[in-house]
Design a protein that fits this description.
Distance between the termini: 40 Å
Strand order of the largest sheet: 2-1-6-5-4-3
Low-confidence stretches: 1-6
Oligomer: single chain
Number of helices: 5
Strand content: 25-35%
Largest sheet: 6 strands, mixed
Shape: globular
Helix content: 40-55%
């Protein structure tokens, strides 16, 4: 846990502008809230109407649906551990919208990638959309594609 906190702090400090630092702090706290199974804090970082896109093609969750699905997981006292290892943040010209991409170390998925959009609401940043994916090396794509195509259709 200590190394995860250090890594989050290092990512936050590597941001350039005050807005980027604030966004990195929000994202770091959001990931930490999941690690600590703090459901209220985790979902407080989502705007109303936010969308979470999971790794499965069927996983397009509104904030409410995602929270309902995740509630039993948080109740176990252990959610998921996503540790950012790299993050890039871009701000809109007016400074009220930001998008980001980050590389993640995860316990269940292995290397993963998160991308998202935040908007500034009064004095804080809220997630509008987050997309979690598992990057597939090009050398493996043909095999992975064949495995996906072999799955029974729903």
């Amino acid at each position: 846990m200590r190394s995860a906190l250090f890594l989050c702090a290092a990512l936050t400090l590597s941001a350039q502008s005050p807005a980027e630092k604030a966004i990195a702090t929000v994202l770091d706290d959001w990931h930490l809230a999941a690690t600590q199974a703090d459901e209220g804090r985790y979902f407080s970082h989502f705007a109303e109407g936010a969308v979470f896109l999971g790794t499965d093609p069927a996983e397009r969750w509104t904030k409410a649906a995602f929270q309902a699905w995740a509630h039993p997981i948080f109740q176990r006292g252990k959610a998921w551990n996503f540790h950012p290892t790299r993050r890039a943040i871009t701000l809109s010209a007016d400074g009220r919208t930001a998008w980001f991409d980050e590389d993640l170390e995860t316990s269940n998925l292995g290397p993963a990638r998160g991308t998202g959009v935040l908007s500034r609401e009064k004095d804080h940043w809220l997630l509008r959309q987050y997309s979690l994916s598992v990057p597939i090396p090009n050398a493996l794509m043909k095999s992975v594609k064949a495995q996906i195509e072999a799955l029974p259709k729903k």
